[in-house]
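Re: your question from the hallway

Yes, I did run it. Sequences:
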Amino acid sequence: MAFVQPPNTYRSGADENGHFGIFGGRYVAETLMPLILEVDKAYTAAKADPKFQTELTHFNTHYAGRPSPLYLAERLTAHFGGAKVYFKRDELNHTGSHKINNCLGQILLARRMGKTRIIAETGAGQHGVAAATVCARFGLQCIVYMGAKDIERQKPNVFRMKLLGAEVRPVNKGTATLKDAMNEALRDWVANVDTTYYLIGTAAGPHPYPTMVRDFQSVIGNEVRTQLQEAEGRLPDTLVACIGGGSNAIGLFHPFLDDKTVRIIGVEAAGKGISTGAHAASITGGGPGVLHGNRTYLLQDASGQIQDAHSISAGLDYPGIGPEHAWLHEMKRVEYVSATDDEALAAFQLCSKLEGILPALEPAHALAHVGKVAPKLPKDHLLVMNLCGRGDKDVFTIADALGAKM
Amino acid sequence: MSRIAARFDALKTQRRSGLVTFITAGDPDMATFQTILNGLPAAGADLIEVGMPFSDPMADGPSIQLSSQRALKHDIALKDIFAAITAFRKSDAATPIILMGYYNPIYRYGGENFSKDAVAAGADGVIIVDLPPEEADELLPALRKHGLNMIFLTAPTSSDVRLPTILKKASGFVYYVAVTGVTGTKSADASAVKLAVDRLRRHTKLPVAVGFGIRTPDQAKAIGAHCDAAVVGSAIVDVIAAGVTQGKPSAALAADVHRFVKDLASGLK
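Structure:
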């Protein structure tokens, strides 16, 4: 393996064309290119505008309920018998996950751009619900593309979106999951360029989305820094987050990337096991490629055809990962590991019983890894895990997996 | 002179607009595709676009999505496409072949190997839907080295400010996307196309082909009047789809496609 020269900072990307090393970029059809450039220009202006930031902070505080607590999980800490385990409680946000952080930012941007119609893609439905929520709040039309297979396994979220006034359009094409929903949203955007804003839910897609979504999600890591300083008087030693597209993870990680003492771990979904091929671990089990507007790690065959992902968690069931993660992997700044469906299910049950918190199946993957590392760490080691969503949406899937009748 | 330049020169001499036909490689299977491909010049195709099937064709409508899926059932890869073009060249040395598709299969194959093997097989140009000029520099040197033209898409949304960015990297011809939308879903408007092509001609001397939203001989004639070539894709692919029952092509499928292309071409003669 070649020696990797560390950069002066890990926090300066993307460059002006949206690249993190060889990753990221703007691989889109020409019809969309002018729009993407317009979004970039509008976001750059908004980011520098104190009024935009004040408005965003206002809604984060009074609408989403930020800051979310940093909670010491005492019983899990005792159970693991090692590191002190803290949860960043982003499942307590309005709508039940970290997705609202990004949606509030992007909806304020869409309004600034004068767009009246919002489209979004969703896998687990958490982003769809958050998008439908902000559209209801600001009186904008909302269309959510969702794979037919995901609609089947996430019925409560589908109904929530409808109650919020969104139109949920099932996608039957391809594998009928998140990647196909994203294809269909891109097709919609190309046909409705004048009126429509595409509210992408994760830190992936063409530039500026990966950077913009990361910025909106970085509120997570910034709060952790302040809160842990108050609780322990110092930086964390280890950060752990689950990764599908990777927006909750990059939000937690990014503010700490230049703190060399902080070990950072991203947990991908290993599904039925990496060796079975039925997984969603793009870095552990995939390779570099180009899809959905960016170059990143993808699950693909030798001919470059995209392969199906599998995870018990619909939110991690995507054959790619945000481009900044691909870069952080190649720079060896962040470690990427994986946890299986079964490990996530066990972690879900453990957390429910010991902490009285039903975690979403997505962060249950992160917790599964915490269970592997925490016992070996000293008792003064500070580990922070992003509990990025609540598990209420998953109870049907879990009942099914456990063979329980509701 | 390249086959593409020679063909557009010939069309100019004949004072007519050309017909560009699109079919997906391996649709509905490799043998039927080869028969369709080999017969296209005689049916009236002046240039041929060969689609490189991709699992996630984001800029395509339902017709071409399904056509890609039919082809991928047979695991069609780039080497199979090159073999089909090699076979085609045994009977036709003049009709330009343009490979059209998405970037990932090319990226995985490697830009240098792709360019070398495509030219060796007898391909003349490439259209990569999701490789805009901003990202194309990673592939252009290899294409140029081996003599493969890079045909860029321009769209109604491409402003006068933006067009030079695209056109300075373009070669062969320029493809104008007549509708804002995916392939095969809206109809191109001839008067809007005229204005758009006039605008393009102020920026480039390259021939202009117009596609997306042309389905009938009348539409081909109306759009063709304002540009150097009209591209028909989804409508041809629909003829293929109609000739496939439970994954099996009908015996008359290739002949049906050729008859349809002949009708399209009649509008442009």
